[in-house]
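Structure ticket #2291
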Amino acid sequence: MKTLYRRQFALTAGLLLLAFVVLGSAFAGLSYQYTIQDKKEAMERNANYIASFTSSYLSNSGSSILEPGYQAYISSLSSISGCTVILSENDGEIVYAATSSGAGGADLLRGTLPQDLLQSVSQNGNYAGLSSLGGLLSDKYYVTAVPILQKVFITGQTYRRGVVLVASETATLTRIWKDFASIFVLTAAVVFLLAAFISSYTSHRQTKPLKDMAKAAGQFGKGEFDVRVTGCENRKDEVGELAEAFNAMAESLAESEQQRSEFIANVSHELKTPMTTIAGFADGILDGTIPPDKEEDALKTISSETRRLSRLVRRMLDLSKLQSSEHVTAQERFDVSEVLLRTLVSLEGKINQRGLDVETDLPDTPVMVWGDPDAITQVCYNLLDNAIKFSTPGTALGLQVQVKGEKAYISVSDHGETIPPEELGKVFDRFHKTDRSRGMDRDGVGLGLYIVKTIINNHKEDITVKSEEGLTTFTFTLTIA
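Resolution: structure written out below.
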């Protein structure tokens, strides 16, 4: 299996190798051309200089290239330049030769230059190329040849006195280039190995969190939700963000699993309580344990518990519809102030029964918002019903609608017991009841606020709760139409 680590390493190594090959080829070509061209130009300058010097030397009466002084000078030039210097007559017969070691080229004195070389010098004025001089040299040398021109002062004409040839071994020409190439290859190898090590380390560091996530995902599938990806806490790159998001998802899954377990336990408890009560009183009537004069009270209890069981089932069906993937929130324009007031009127009996006042802070003009009017009516009903149940008798309910920017903020508040801070984050959970509600609201099933939260989430809006010094306020938002 080709892992991501191997692919990343192979890709990086391949790119580095390709870069070195391209750069190496360019460097080799340019450096070779520069080295060879520089050597060629130096040989041509030396050949022209020797030809000019020889021509001037021979112009002096009685001077000859066979004189020791001349030969010593040419031998020195040959040694300094590292080239072989050959002087010949016009017909190609070699009259003097000096090798790069400074010694005279005795073996060359018995030779004759090739005719094609002499012809090129005669026609083109010079010769440059690789040649063994017809076997005079042990191997092919790079050869530069120029004529020795002599000027006749009486007639002003110029004629050729001979040929100067400068030859250099190809090994000498490429030695510097090979040294450069060796240094480049060595440096490239070191850099490549270092880059390969760094690439291997970074690839491993990038893929390790991914492997940990894959392993953790497998454990999630087995029901182990306490596994987390560690070692990425200080990373500020995309992998660190992915690890952080993965851990957040793991926390959410663990919380969802816990809520699922609690939901099943709560449903079992909520169903068991009324069913046990109903069965107990029914059996009491049937077996005569409950006397005839108490049967009516028992039947009232059975009826009450039956209605409570019916409400629980109805609320759970409502939740199922709200959480269904097929549920789509209708988007209509409506006046949220009107919806809030209409819901308030429907609860007038409960408000009067608890002796509550109502304080409203609503705009004088309609507040048109987008949403599902029926769903928002249920939100307002649940919040107002909750506020009525938990308000201290004789206090006032607060209703407020404010417009801020593109949002409408709808608030419902009541005066009662303060919700503890540790409970605020749980009031929207399924079947959650604070201690105060357990004693005061026996008819509640703990799903009202969860339904509110679900509806607001379906609208892509927010809902918050604050409880300080006995004043509890629920606020949700809607988008202005």
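Closing remark: The radius of gyration is 52 Å.
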